[in-house]
């Protein structure tokens, strides 16, 4: 089945530095990828929708200059958290859509990245 | 506006049956999803309903009534490993994004 590889699984960084998270679709082409953030004991919060070859669409309240999304190819999307601060510590999850699958929208999730900013 | 409601927490006994309800009000409807999420892990897909009725898949079944804006996830023969958060999500809009409920934390006790 469709597989999405997300790296790194966890990262600890110092306040003020930037962190890049990668999301790759391994056996299908993903024209659309979704980036989520999840705080402890809360549901998934959609941050942005990433479309290959075009600018990402950010949800209300998400700073596009702080959370840079690049979707340069049909198999790779990256999220860069710039000038990270402790309040950015969260679980970040990507999801890609395999348009070749007709049922369940073809959503496949990455394994998530636990970001801790100290 | 977009709104999805599900209970915050539920408790059940190993071997029993539990039903987790979800009601939704969304602008547009492209199907309803149930996901399971264990702590610290990404969600895993359980079921997808786009037509009214019951979809059965092993120990898990999902029901949808579009006219009532209502769905439930039925878990049979509960096992300890079923302790997790269960997320209801609705597909809405042309960009196929999902609107998520806050999740139901299910605790299965021996």
Number of strands of chain A: 11
Low-confidence stretches of chain B: none
Strand content of chain B: over 45%
Radius of gyration of chain A: 14 Å
Contiguous helical run count of chain A: 0
Supply Rg of chain B. Answer: 13 Å
Uncertain regions spanning at least 5 consecutive residues of chain A: none
SS-based structural class of chain B?
mainly beta
State the order of secondary-structure elements of chain B, H for helix, E for strand.
Answer: EEEEEEEEEEE
Total DSSP E strands of chain B:
11
| Average residue pLDDT of chain B | 93
**Beta-strand residue percentage of chain A:** over 45%
Order of helices and strands of chain A: EEEEEEEEEEE
Largest sheet of chain A: 7 strands, mixed
* Percentage of residues assigned to helices of chain A: under 10%
Question: Which short descriptors sum up this protein?
Answer:
heterodimer; A: 118 residues; mainly beta; four-stranded antiparallel sheet; 51% strand; globular; B: 110 residues; six-stranded mixed sheet; five-stranded antiparallel sheet; 0% helix
Question: Can you offer a commentary on this structure?
Answer:
The complex is a heterodimer of chains A (118) and B (110). Chain A is 0% helix and 51% strand. Chain A is mainly β. Chain A has strands spanning 4-7, 10-13, 19-25, 32-38, 45-51, 57-58, 67-73, 76-81, 90-97, 107-109, 113-117. The relative contact order of chain A is 0.33. Chain A has no helices and eleven strands. In chain A, the strands form two sheets. In chain A, strands 2, 4, 5, 6, 9, 10 and 11 form a seven-stranded mixed β-sheet that branches. A four-stranded antiparallel β-sheet of chain A has the order 1-3-8-7, with no helix packed on it. Chain A starts with a strand and ends with a strand. By secondary structure, chain B is mainly β. Chain B has no helices and eleven strands. Chain B has strands at residues 3-5, 9-13, 18-25, 32-37, 44-49, 53-57, 60-65, 70-75, 84-92, 97-100, 104-109. In chain B, strands 2, 4, 5, 9, 10 and 11 form a six-stranded mixed β-sheet that branches. In chain B, strands 1-3-8-7-6 form a five-stranded antiparallel β-sheet, with no helix packed on it. In chain B, strand 7 (60-65) and strand 8 form a beta hairpin. The relative contact order of chain B is 0.34. The model of chain B has no long low-confidence stretch (mean pLDDT 93). The A-B interface holds A 6, 32, 34, 41-46, 49, 57, 91, 93, 97, 103-105, 107, 109-112, 114 and B 30-31, 33, 40-45, 48, 87, 91, 95-98, 100-103, 105.
């Amino acid at each position: 089945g469709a597989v999405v590889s997300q790296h790194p699984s966890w990262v600890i960084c110092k306040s003020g530095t930037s962190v890049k998270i990668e999301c790759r679709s391994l056996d299908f082409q993903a024209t659309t990828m979704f980036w989520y953030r999840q705080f402890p004991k809360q549901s998934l919060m959609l941050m942005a929708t990433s479309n290959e070859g075009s600018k990402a669409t950010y949800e209300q309240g998400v700073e596009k200059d702080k959370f840079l999304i690049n979707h340069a190819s049909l198999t790779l999307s990256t999220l860069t958290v710039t000038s990270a601060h402790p309040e950015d510590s969260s679980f970040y999850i990507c999801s890609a859509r395999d348009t070749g699958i007709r049922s369940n929208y073809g959503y496949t999730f990455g394994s998530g990245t636990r970001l801790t900013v100290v | 506006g977009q709104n999805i409601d599900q209970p915050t927490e539920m408790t059940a006994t190993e071997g029993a049956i539990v039903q987790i309800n979800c009601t939704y009000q969304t602008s547009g409807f492209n199907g309803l999803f149930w996901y399971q999420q264990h702590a610290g892990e990404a969600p895993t897909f359980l079921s997808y309903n786009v037509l009214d009725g019951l979809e059965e898949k092993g120990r898990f079944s999902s029901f949808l009534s579009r006219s009532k804006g209502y769905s439930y996830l039925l878990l049979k023969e509960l096992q300890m490993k079923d302790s997790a958060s269960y997320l209801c999500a609705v597909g809405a809009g042309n960009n196929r994004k999902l609107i998520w409920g806050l999740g139901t934390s299910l605790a299965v006790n021996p």
